[in-house]
Amino acid sequence: MKIATYNVNGVNGRLEVLLRWLEQASPHIVCLQELKAPDEKFPAKALEAAGYGAIWHGQKSWNGVAILAKGKEPLLTRKGLPGGSDDVQSRYIEAAIDGMVIGCLYLPNGNPFPGPKFDYKLAWFERLHSYAAELLALEVPVILAGDYNVMPTDLDVYKPERWKNDALFRVEVRDAFRRLVEQGWTDALRKLHPDERIYTFWDYFRNAFARDAGLRIDHFLLSADIAARLSAAGVDREVRGWDHTSDHAPTWIEISDKATKRRKVR
Known about the structure:
The protein is α+β, with helices and mostly antiparallel strands. It has seven helices and 14 strands. It is an enzyme of class 3 (hydrolase).
């Protein structure tokens, strides 16, 4: 089974790119972020014609998350992250699909640092910590996928010395991600590619994609039972080079029906 996450940077404005990628990659489950569309403007019919059922949590002009499932309707289990009754930003949606809980998230950017946007990011991260622990306690297969807006280590950012005071690389944010993983989650791409420099985002400015001046900010965190079935993980980098494309590239994992046995390297 192939599961992907993709910050589309405007689902309607880049619908042609999304549909082209869906046809080419044929993922079974897709988590989308940054829809930039209210609920009534979500292109459900176009996605249905492409073979995907969908649930979504939209917001006019900003944010927005969705989950797609090939040939079926995702069962909505949650809209919005717990603990923020006054939080109107559409950043979390969750579904049950094929015996798994799929959480799709779009963590706040947090810039500029310091400031209220950075404080909101850290507060949102703490809410995610609390809820992620609850999900693990359920002892069911869980995947938390999306745009986390954090580069966990120096390996995940070109020229890390330039990013020390950016909200995506501040020590507080990296520490929050580390503490989240330490609950018992597996960072899928880093699990299979521990020493490889892999990026999922390249800015539109300063010819970043051509220079490979990228960031790894789109992540899959897997519960232990899913991590045992992880067989492959990667980035559809070529999509970032298409015309009128997002500044992110689709990131994906493949999981097998049974636990994957890996040969020990001697």
